[in-house]
Amino acid sequence: MSAVADDFRAAFRAHPAGVALITANPHGRPVGITVSSLASLSVDPVAVSFSLTRSSGSAGALLQAPTFLIHLLGQEHSQLADAFARPDGPRFTAEQNWQHLENGEPYFAEAPVAFRARMHSSLQVGGSRLIAAEVLEVFQGPKSQHLLYQDRGYWDLSGATALEVRPG
Hints:
By secondary structure, the chain is of the alpha+beta class.
C-alpha cells in the first residue's frame, strides 16, 4: 500500500459518517450490508449514492436485486449495524425486529428513515463500485438521533453540542 493510500485511510478514519443498512431480497433470500458511504445525490430524480467494496457475498446479491431498502440507522442501532458489517454477524434474527415489505424487501421499521430504491447506475473504481440509486419511496420511522461511524467505532450525537455559526 502506498503512503498516499495510508494517509487517505487515516483521514477518512477520523472523518465521521452516517451509518446506513441496505437490505434486499434477491432470489427470495434476505441479504443486508452496513455502509457509511451514503450521500445525497440528486432531487430530480431523487437519488442517493453509496459504495460497495466488493461485488460478491451480500454486496453482490444486493446488486442483483430489482429494489432494495436503505435504512438510516439511529443511535440505538449500533449492534444492528455491527451485525451487518461483519461477515459472520447475526442477520435477520427475531430480536432484530424486521419484516418483509409487500415487494419482499427486508424492512427494519425502527430505523428513523428508510428509502426504497432501485439501481440507477454504477461505476467500477478500483476494487470498489459506486452505486447511484433512484429513491422510489420514503418510510418514516421513530424519531431518533442518527448513528455515526468514526475511527472504527459507532457514535451518537445525543451529548454533542450544536455549534453556532456567526456570519462574517
